[in-house]
Design a protein that fits this description.
The chain is an alpha+beta fold and 208 residues long. It folds into two domains: 85 residues, no CATH class; 103 residues, no CATH class. Helices cover 27% and strands 19% of the residues. It is built from six helices and seven strands, in the order αβββαββββαααα. It has a four-stranded antiparallel β-sheet with strand order 1-7-3-4, with no helix packed on it. A three-stranded antiparallel β-sheet has the order 2-6-5, with no helix packed on it. β5 and β6 form a beta hairpin. α1 crosses α3 and α3 runs antiparallel to α6. The radius of gyration is 23 Å and the shape is elongated.
């Protein structure tokens, strides 16, 4: 997806005749740098090994419900630890109950009420009482992204195009720019200003 349309080129300091293929290539570089498949609202699935805190952070932000949905959380599944493993952070009585009622190593569906979610930070905390067995693994299917392309991303796209136009090694006079060719010059094109603009959008997997 191109992050600037033809009628926006001049607004962001580009010539109206700028090749669309160059803007598309710059947009691909942004996706690669931010480790995203775009900035629209799309669905992701992640699996986590649960720690003692029973808290994880989702990678792609901000969480946002898809059109027609009421929540960004699409599906939750959990897997209890095996009987041979220590139950993270639970009492001996809870471990005994879990050994009877919780089937280990089998994925089970969880309700949305089983977690507390912060849509901006992506922090997800499993809720449960003192006798609730702890989960060993958690699988979260969710939607995240933006209804419209963030302004900083548009600015970064224009800056990448300007950098490409100023790079002699790039033959920008061609009507069609080879995206792999532009990718080869990624380190040159993605300068400090572009990194600063994109910093809030880089997806990062954090340990729980």
């Amino acid at each position: 997806m191109a992050y600037l349309t033809g009628d926006e080129y001049e607004m962001y300091g580009l010539e109206a005749t700028t090749a669309d293929s160059l803007v598309a290539a710059a947009s691909d570089l942004i996706d690669a740098h931010c480790r995203r498949s775009g900035f629209g609202i799309v669905q992701y699935m992640e699996r986590f090994r649960m720690g003692r805190s029973q808290m994880v952070r989702l990678t792609y932000l901000p969480l946002a419900a898809a059109s027609g949905a009421t929540s960004a959380i699409v599906l939750l599944r959990g897997r209890y630890v095996s009987r041979g493993r220590e139950w993270a952070g639970e009492s001996a009585l809870a471990a005994e109950i879990a050994g009877v009622f919780a089937t280990p190593n089998v994925w089970v569906d969880l309700t949305s009420s089983a977690v507390d979610v912060d849509t901006q930070s992506g922090e997800l905390i499993l809720l449960g009482g003192a006798l609730s067995p702890a989960l060993g693994d958690l699988e979260v299917t969710y939607t995240a992204g933006y209804a419209t392309t963030p302004e900083a991303v548009k600015q970064a796209c224009a800056k990448l195009v300007q950098n490409a136009l100023a790079t002699p090694a790039l033959n920008v006079s061609k009507q069609k720019i080879d995206r792999m060719y532009v990718q080869y010059f990624a380190d040159t094109l993605i300068d400090a200003d572009v990194k600063r603009l994109l910093a809030p959008f880089v997806a990062q997997r954090l340990a729980s």
